[in-house]
Every structure is written in structure tokens, then in C-alpha cells.
Request: fold
Amino acid sequence: MDSVITYVLTRKLNTQSHDRALVDTTRALARQVVMTPQGPQLDPAWNTTRFLTTDPDERTYFRISVDGEIIAGTAVLPSPPVVDDPDGADEDGAEPPTLLDRINKAVPTIYDSLVEGLPVRAVALDFSFDDYLVEVAMAETLNTRSRFIEEILSVLVAGQLLLIALLGFVIVTAVRSGLESVSKLSDEIESRSIDDLQPIGGDDVPSELTPLIAKTNSLLGRLDEAVAAQRRFIGHAAHQLRTPLSGLKLESELMLARPVPDDVRQRAERIKAAADRMIRVGEQLLVLARIDANVRPRDTFTRIDLTELTRECGARWVPAARQAHVEIVLVAPDEPVWVDGDEVLLDQLLGNLVDNAIRYHGGPGQIVLRVNDSPPSLVVEDDGPGIAPEDRARVFDAFYRAKNSQAGGSGLGLAIVKEIAEAHGAHWDLRSRPEFAGTRISLVFPGPRIGAHLSRVRIEPRQPDW
Reply:
């Protein structure tokens, strides 16, 4: 709107200034009329070229008439429109005494017309000279005026475009600056674990998002309290159940230790198996209650030799493996493979993997416990029937069991493996048939610290000293 107003005012001022110059030129031409014996005539000594423009694109026309008869100039210049007061008389009706005064007092008639097909701006002056009525008219084409307006318009347009570009740059920069912090916040949320309910940092976000972050942090706080209450309940319930279940198991073992009828022995064995299964579920629930994904300070972890831990844990499962006609093989480097972690939780993780491999193996075979040092990783392999493709995405969910599973279990083993791995910042990978001849679960722990000396020598499988 400002540009339109500026353009209109500039055009008006341009027209007024050119009209004023044209009126002055016409008065100067009128002063060149002199009286001769033949009547008013254009002064022969006057040089007409002094009134012509030096602009090659501009044309100037003039005409001098005495009592309607043209005495100088061109006849193609049209006459001005009729006005009410052609003489420009004073208000008191008195005519100026001198010719110069009458020329200066004459009211100019300014009008638009066409000359030789070109649009022109013209000025006409009417005044009396003795008993003669003299009319002096002058016109000029509009090239100079139009060119000036075009230059002004181009400057305005260029200025507006520059202003728009500058304003757009400022807006885009401001929006990008605001969105950059939002993107960082989005990336931070995206990279979080599903169990990480810590408050969101909102130091670098726009102030408009502060209330949203505050409400979100309030929601996360309530969810954290609910999850903590759930974990406490699970832990307390599992602990309370363990005592009566242990008593029930002891009673069934005492009953089986004495001679009893066969039907009573079968019932006692079923009671003992159910008690063992419930005690196992209670232990798994206690482990779940102990794992808190929101509290993972690395300084509370201890330095653990993954090779030694695997050897000790595997040794405890040898009797159960032999009973199931399964052989356990350890493949590990001679040098320690250090990781930072919780020894009890890592022992539970490996125990769950070995128990799962034995439980679902289904016949004679082999379980390989493999420890690698670059990067620190733990792999449990078996040559059992494998896991169906439709079950692989859910086997790490709590209480999930495959539909065709024949072995007993609580459905918590691999869920606990996942929780412990996440608590240690480890990544896991599951491969099964047909990619792998059996089932292979790999756990890769955080890489070695700077300065660690790791061996990359391939270690051949060897039998553990069990």
C-alpha cells in the first residue's frame, strides 16, 4: 500500500513539475510576439531552436494565432477546449496596463491531445495585444514524463522485491532457528528408550513450547511413579510368594523321600514340578523388579570378565544339559574380555539364554557359548528346531509363548534378557532357521574404551574344564 501511495504521489508531482516548466516555456514564447505594421508577429530575431528539447526522443510543437489566423508554428496542434474566461481578467475587471503584465496574468489552459498520432501535453495562453486577440499554444510529447515514471516505478519495484527478499530471509532464518531446537528435542525424544521416563530438557526451545514441555514432563513423572509402583508391587509379590512356595516344594520332596503309593507319588511329583515352576517365575519377577531402566549410572557398574562369567554360569547348567542330552561348548579367548556391568544381572541374562536353549532344544545336540573381544560380545548358539519367523518379533515380550511350544516356561526368560541388555547399553540380534541352523542370539556390549588392547586372533572352539 505504501508503494502504491508513493507511486501515485510521485506521478502527480512529476506531472505538475513538467506542466509548470511547459507553462513557463509558453509564456517565454508569448513574450516574443511584437507589433509590426502588419499587426502582431513573431519576432524575426527569435531563434526557435532554443525552445526545442535536446532529448532525441522528445518532440515539441507550438502555434501562434492572431484573431484565429496562424502566424507561426504548426497547424497540426489542436486548439484548447473552450473555457469560460479565456482572457484571464482580474476580479475587478481592469485589464493589466502592459503587454508583459497581460502575458504573466493570462490563465493557462492545460490539456491533453494528439499530434501526428503521438500523445502530447499542451498549454495555451490567450491575451489581448492592442485590438488583437493573440493565442500562443505549445505542446510536448510524454516520453520524458513516462521515462521518469518508469524509472521511479522500477526503483519502487526493486526496493519492494529487495524488502520482500530480506523479510523472507529474516522469517526463514527465525523459523529455522526455532525449528532447529525443536528438531534437537525431537531427536532426543526419538533416541530415548521406551523405558526412559526422565524429564525432557527445555533450555533451548522456544518459549511457546515451554508449557507443552512442562506438561509432558509432568506426565512423564506420573508415569515414572506408576512404573516404579508396579515394579515394587511385582518385587513384593514375588518375594511374598517365594516363602510359601519353598515350603510347598520342601513338603513335596519330603513326601517323595518316603515310600508312598504310586498315585500319591505322581501327585507329589506334579506338586513339586508346579512349585519349581512357580519359584522360577518368582525369581524372574524379582529380576524384573530389580532392573530399573531409568537408573543406569555407569559408575555403579563393576569391571567384569565376560569370559570368566560365561565359564562359571555355563558350568552350573552342565548337569541340566546332560540330563537333556545336550552338550555345552565354550568358545572364548584366553585373555579376559572386560565389560562394565552388574555381575548378578549378566549372570541371570546368560542363565536365561542357556535355560531357554536347553528347554526348547528337544533332543540330543549342542549349545555353544561364544565370547568375542572385538567388540565385547556374547553369543549363545544351539542346533535345535529354531524359532518360527512369525514368533521372532515377539519372543522378547513378557509372558509371550509360541503357539506350538511344547516345553514349559513362564514366558519371561527372553523378556528379562532384553531388559538386562538395555540396562547395559547392549544390542541384541536373533537369527534362526533358515538363516542359521538352529537359533543364535548375539549380544554386543558397548565398545572398548580408548587405550584398551584387544586381541583379534581367531580362537578355535575348545571344551571347558567342567
About this structure: The chain has ten helices and 14 strands. The two ends are 92 Å apart (CA to CA). The longest helix spans residues 143-191. The longest strand covers residues 118-129.
